[in-house]
Structure formats: C-alpha cells, structure tokens
Amino acid sequence: MRGHIPVSKVDALVERLNGTGFFELKRQANFGPDASYTVIAAQAAHGKHQWVGSWHDPSTPGVVATERGLQSSADRAVDPPSKEYRNFLKVWADARAVIENAIPTEGATTRSVDETIYGLGR
Questions:
Q1: Most buried of 4, 88, 94, 119, CB within 10 angstroms?
Q2: What DSSP assignment string belongs to 1-70?
Q3: What confidence tens digit (pLDDT) does each residue in 18-37 have?
Q4: Quick check: helix, strand or coil at residue 72?
C-alpha cells in the first residue's frame, strides 16, 4: 500500500513501530529463492531503518510457510516454529497492522516500486 501520511502523524507511527520491536528484528528474510514475498520497510530518524521480507503473508490456500520452507497444510507433520520465528511472526503482524492503520483511506495498492521506496529501510 502507498499513501501520504501527515507529518504530524509520522512520530506517532515510528513510536508504534518501536513498540512492536520492528527495528530490533535480527532476522530479515523468510523466503526461498525465486519466491514471491511481501516487504515491510521503514526508515526513521537517528539512523533507525529496517527492511523485512517474508513469503508467509498473504498465505496460499493449502500451503503453510514455515521457517524451513513451504509445506502442504494436509501434512500433519508440520514443524512447530522456533521461538525466534514465532517472535518474527508476531512483530511482522504488529508492524504490518501499525503501518496499514496509518494509511489514509485514499491510499492505494501499488504494484511497482520506485528507487526511493526500493531503498527504504536498507
């Protein structure tokens, strides 16, 4: 999603992202080669920046994305996630909700990314 957020709301957004642990995530990529994935990225004052990509969200019906790869949801032996991956999923969900809730109603989905956005959080 892309939208313009009033400057007055940016500090509050960054504080909410801080509260999720987003800028402290050590694990930044959870996707396999040649896979499509979603990115959450943010850059704040004082050198804080983060770029996180994952293939688990949105999910594909019948497929479970784990930290070890994609598995069929029919497979009863789906590996339980590690503590690190559970934390990643929680921070991901919280950060995504914070960002999506900040997008004004006139925000729009974007399929192309310009260089400024591409470099965000890196």
A1: 88
A2: -B----HHHHHHHHHHHHHHTGGG-S--EE--TT---EEEEEE-STT-EEEEEESSSS--TTEEEETTEE
A3: 999 999 988 777 777 777 78
A4: strand
